[in-house]
Amino acid sequence: MKNKVLMGLAAIAMVAVLSGCGKKPQVEIDATNAAIEAAKTAEAAVYVPAEFAAVQDSMNAINADIAARESKLFKQFGPVKVKLTETLTLANQVAANAAVKKAEVKKEVETLMTEVKAVIEENTALMKKAPKGKEGAAVLEQMKTEMATIEASVVEAQGMYDKGAFMDALNKVKAAKERAVGINTELKDAIAKVKGKAKPAAAPKKK
Amino acid sequence: MRKVWRDVLVFAAIAVSIPLVIILLIRFTPLPPVSEMEYARETLSKAGKNRADTYSKKLFTQAKIYYDSAMVNWQKENKKFIYFRDYNKVAMFAELSAKKASQAAENSLSSTSNLKIKLKQKIDSLNDLVSENNELFTTYPLSSEIRNRISKGKMLLSEAEIAYKKGQYLQANRKITDSEYLLTASYESVTANLKNYFKSYSVWNNWVNKTIKESKKNRDYSIIIDKFSRKCFVYLSGTKKYEFEVELGKNWVGDKRVKGDKATPEGMYKITKKFEGRKTKYYKALLLDYPNDEDKEKFKSEIARGSLPASAKIGDLIEIHGNGGKGIDWTEGCVALTDKEMDVVFKIVKVGTPVTIVGSMVDLQYVVNR
What is the mean pLDDT of chain B? Predict the structure, then answer.
């Protein structure tokens, strides 16, 4: 009788061991989710969007895999643990890449900011030398307004930079530089034209 | 011996029943929709790569919600006893998610392509608008508000072009919309003013013809000032002899209405006095008979109508004078020539020489097309 009971218990224990041999790797899941969250905080979605989407996709696949394994009678989470470790490494890499890209964009904004300020300064000096005859002064008036807009745009870009929105600041400062360089070229052309024409004032046109 | 046989039988029964139970357990366990979920996830991922999260946001969000619902239901079912699980809802949500994600991906592709074309057209047309109007309004006295709006519009257009080049079409679209609003509204407002101004063209044309005829008839000099082209034409016996650049009052668009409005009057005038030396601070000057009877009548009727305050005073001392060549409209309403050109004019005209000031000698269509 005693033997029968023991054998029955052994059978039940075998089934229990077989069905419950795998436990959901919650620690690894939490660690990977935390790494993804850290990548998100590092603005990976802004600076390395494709890489970040790949990490998210990888985690979605893992979640689906876990759910599939949980549906089984005999759960085995060994392969999932491997995938989680890989995704965690990937998420950390993505966070690091985002930080690098962010630093690059920040540096680019700083460089552009310095460049645009230099062009603005040069333009201000050139305006004093620009020809005022004929339509010159009216054009200069328009240029002055445009320079004011450019300066306002640079201030706006600086505000974005201060808030850490480097990507937005980059677009703004790029546009500001483009316009400032446009004005610079116009001014230099106008001055060069006048220099080329430098000769005594023409007598009134007789028709 | 019997006991041994009985134990062997029990052991055999257990040995057979365990795999049997396992086989039965596996055979009748409800299967989760793994492939459906995988397909949904892959479709969602593809939609994401097509930037459906940006360009087909609604469908993409729906697809994500269905996918999340499928996952939640799957996890919920997994918690039930194995034989009571039902994955039908999970499969349904997975299917819906895949369908919406697929639609989102397609929609995103087509939206992006359409938006890209639309943006390119808008950028090109706005650049054309800016360049056309730049030429037309180079010397037009735009208000500082309009100048600012045009300038901001141009800046936004540059920002839109940068966003467009980076493939940030939604951002480019927002910038283009703002730029278009600022530029078109500003140019429309200026063009409307200009059209309104040119309503007087037929009157100006009459004055010009009369002045040229008079010059021909009297075999004498006549002066015509074209404000829009900022030109002073000197006619002799009906033929154009000289053409000079002029500078006007800051608010040269429109007729002079009141003293101090910095507008250059429009009308048919005559030279009443010639000043030079210490008699003028503008090198040499030709005083006109402004206000003439017509100007006085107009002024009175404006006062009567209430469009001018009763305390308003009519302007006077409108001259053609020297000290010009500044390249900007700076006078109080007079017409300025360079001193050198003033010498030429001063020498050939006399008291009584007709001076006709018009908004333009050519019609608006011509002005716009040139």
Answer: 90
AA identity, residue B64 = K
Rounded average pLDDT over B21-43: 86
CATH number of the structural domain spanning residue B118: 1.20.1270
Number of compact structural domains in chain B: 3
DSSP structure string for B19-41: HHHHHHHHHTSPPP-HHHHHHHH
Contact B87 A134 (CB under 8 A): no
- Segment B127-157, tens digit of pLDDT: 999 988 877 777 677 888 888 999 999 999 9
Which of B42, B77, B88, B40 lies closest to B62 in space, CA to CA?
B40
Q: Is residue A114 part of a domain?
A: yes
d(C-alpha B221, C-alpha B211), whole Å: 10
Q: Look up the ipTM and state it.
A: 0.78
| B226: three-class secondary structure by DSSP | strand
Whether residue A205 lies inside any domain: the answer is no
Preferred mutation among A3, A75, A141, A172 to probe B, highest tally of B CBs within 10 A: A141
For residue B328, give every residue at least 6 positions away whose Cβ sits within 8 Å of its Cβ, in sequence order, or none.
A132, A137, A138, A141, B247
The Cα-based distances of A203 to A200, B239, B339 in angstroms read 9, 19, 11
Q: Which of B183, B198, B213 is the last residue of a domain?
A: B198
* Per-residue buried b or exposed e for A30-59, using 16+ beta carbons within 10 Å of the residue's own CB: ebbbebbeebbebbbbbbbeebbbbbbbbb
Q: What is this structure's pTM?
A: 0.75
How many Cβ pairs within 8 Å bridge chains A and B? 138
Find the closest chain A residue to B85 by CA distance: A71
Q: What is the DSSP string of B68-124?
A: HHHHHHHHHHHHS-GGG---HHHHHHHHHHHHHHHHHHHHHHHHHHHHHHHHHHHHH
Contact yes or no for B14 and A71 at CB 8 A: no
Q: Are B45 and B97 in contact (CB under 8 A)?
A: no
Last residue of a domain, one of A83, A101, A119: A101
Does B327 sit within 8 Å of A131, measured CB to CB? yes
Q: What is the pLDDT of residue A204?
A: 37
Q: Report pLDDT digits (tens) over A99-141.
A: 999 999 999 999 999 999 999 999 999 988 877 654 556 677 7
